[in-house]
Amino acid sequence: MPRAVKDVADKRNVLSIMIGGEAGYGIMTSGEILARSFSRGGLHVHTDVEYPSLIRGGHNTYQVCVSEAEVWGLREKVDVLIALDDLTIREHTRELRPDGKVLFDLYENPIDPKKEFPDLRAEVVPVPLSQIVKEKNGDKVMRNTVSIGACMALIDYDFSFLEDVIRSTFGKKDVEVGNANVDAAKAGYDYIIDKAKCTVLKRVSRVGGAPRRMVLTGNDAIALGALQGGLRWYSAYPMTPASSILHFMAANEKATGIVVRQTEDEIAAGTMAIGASYAGARAMVATSGGGFCLMVEGLGLAAMTETPMVYVLAQRPGPSTGLATRHEQGDLQFALDASQGDFVRVVLAPGDVDEAFHHTFNALNLADRYQIPVIVISDRYLSESLRTTLPFDLSGKKIDRGKLLTEEQLAEAFDYKRYEDTEDGVSPRALPGMKGGLFVANGDDHYETGESNEDPDVRKQMMDKRFKKLKALTEEIPGPTLYGPPDADATIVTWGSCKGPCMDAMNILLDKGRSVNLLHFIYLKPFPRKLALEKLKKARMTIGVESNRTSQFDRLMREELKVSVDKKIRKYDGRPYFAEPLANEIEEAMR
After folding, report:
1. Residue 73 and residue 218: Cα distance in Å, rounded?
2. Whether 480 contacts 535, CB under 8 Å
3. Superfamily of segment(s) 215-389
4. What's the average model confidence in pLDDT over 67-73?
5. pLDDT single digits (tens) 274-312
6. Are 384 and 242 in contact (CB under 8 A)?
């Protein structure tokens, strides 16, 4: 990213920690333990993980950003780098702040960071991680636990929070394992205090009296929103970054009473879910771009049979396999138009874990109310990043099954027609097996009763009937949300998970005295034209921020509103935005 504007910096008190090492050495577990330890102390946390597309091995990193104020995303520079292998030193030492720390194994990492990087200004903190593990008669993998204990001493953070999280993480399975890991972490903590010759980096402290917050990923939130929304069927074939939804659902299948099926492929996952929904169960599938390609014919079947369906499309870089474990927002136009022919759908893209929960719940209601497919767009960054948030507000949350008939209502109906041409286009819905509710459902266009028909007048009538749903649906769809001062000089326009980095960049610029706000879109189809225009007309200057090469959201705005942003910022290198460089680019665009 360009650095033309050099004085834009994040003045908010944010601490950034990165732990890196070879896959299989507990990098992700250590990162999650750090995140939860900070949350227990009343701090706000946002994390991200990077790992290669390999079955085994490879280099993993986990970054944790923590602050006493709300933090929305990642920082480019790292305050503490925990290097569990040489590659972490080689690849990430340059990312350290001048006053940062690099913590590494005195014996297992023969590379001296000062010799490797003669101009390194960060403090080098060698710790005998492997020796401490041997003294504790532990497995080599426990070096990660020693290292995070040492990290907590380096930043002068209360060890009791780390101990609490370690016990809750390991102790449920094996109390002895939990005790061993606590001892290892304490040994690392004590080594820094008693023996290491280094200074303390005091950046954040516990926040007394802070509310207890949840720590969860976007995929966790999507799964919870679906379960709260009455989900009864979930089928999927594992595909990064949607896979952890399947893991969550499978782990909670018995407790929630839902049916979870891992299928042989995405075609089976999609069509089985359509069958479950046809039978009356609220159903959802989740996949990434390649899997969604295979589900598209089934998507059309759901539309033609007016069967409610929710699809989660967790994006990753394409085309083809692309970068299977990296980040991008390149599937927007695909989600908007994937079909054989024309049909009504909803496409929405939550920007954070709260929106992921609430709008997945809403997606199930919309699917039932209008008997249509609803596509929830996520991406690798939102799917797998942990974030702190307050418990979800469930007030006013009601499951709406739409025009789903009871047996008593069906008994009163005369000459039931499943696809009756109603005023609003939504037909009363009977379920298979209900007395008097016999109907045909197949992929052909049909009469109101469902029998196949190719008459041109009937075809036009049924197409128009299905599109009548748009009137009420469009009126129900919420518009974009404006954050920041309403009369700003520049408006950042974005969608989906770019919300977080844009919020951080906006706050950095506001702290610097620049006049900027943020307009964030969740609902993309039907596009909220009237509400969008009302807010865009007030913008003095617009700057579009997206994670794709072709500015797909700006293309959507041009199509729907005949309006384009004044300046464009795009990132498509497989990585999410960092706050400070993004703030630099936005300020440069404002000139």
Report:
1. 13
2. yes
3. Thiamin diphosphate (ThDP)-binding fold, Pyr/PP domains (3.40.50.970)
4. 95
5. 999 999 999 999 999 999 999 999 999 999 999 999 999
6. no
Q: Where are the beta strands (DSSP E) in 365-456?
A: 373-379, 386-389
Name the CATH topology of 14-194.
Pyruvate-ferredoxin Oxidoreductase; domain 3 (3.40.920)
CA distance 32 to 169: 10
Of 3.40.250.10, 3.30.9.10, 3.40.50.920, 3.40.50.150, the CATH number of 481-590 is: 3.40.50.920
CA-to-CA distance for 504 and 497, rounded, in angstroms?
12
Fold: same for 215-389 and 481-590: yes
| pLDDT at residue number 112 | 85
Give the residue extent of every domain in the chain. 14-194, 215-389, 407-474, 481-590
Residues in contact with 501: Cβ distance below 8 Å, sequence separation at least 6, in sequence order: 72, 73, 74, 545, 576, 577, 578, 579, 582
Asked if pLDDT for residue 55 goes beyond 80, the answer is no
Q: What Cα–Cα distance (Å) separates residue 65 from each residue in 34, 39, 300, 469, 517?
A: 10, 11, 42, 44, 23
* Tokens (6 digits) for 190: 């004590």
Q: What are 247's two structure tokens?
A: 């893991």
List the one residue out of 482, 500, 492, 456 whose CA is nearest residue 567: 492
The conformation of residue 197, written as its DSSP 8-state character, comes to -
Q: Taking the CB of residue 421, how many other CB atoms lie within 10 A of it?
A: 14
Contact between 22 and 57 (Cβ < 8 Å): yes
Whether residue 480 has a cis bond before it, omega within 30° of 0: no
For 175-222, the pLDDT digits (tens) are 889 999 999 999 999 999 999 989 999 989 999 999 999 999 999 999
Residue 249, number of CB atoms within 10 A of its CB: 25
